[in-house]
# Entry
Amino acid sequence: MLVLSRRPGEHIAIGENVVVRVLSVKGDTIQLGIEAPRHIAVHRGEIRAQIIAAMEAARASAADPAAMKRLLESRRKDS
# Structure
């Protein structure tokens, strides 16, 4: 892990296309601005964890034919 110190107004460049700017520091809260191309996903850590959990659940249910059948049947009822 690379650890850097930055002040408000300063930034960090990641690769060719991503810039992380320190916008403000208030107490123990830091406000960051992230500039990245639209094709690069940028998520808060807790949101990324939810996405990974959902993907793992979907992968597990796809491996279970009965679970896939129940999912498809429930979607038909909702339509």
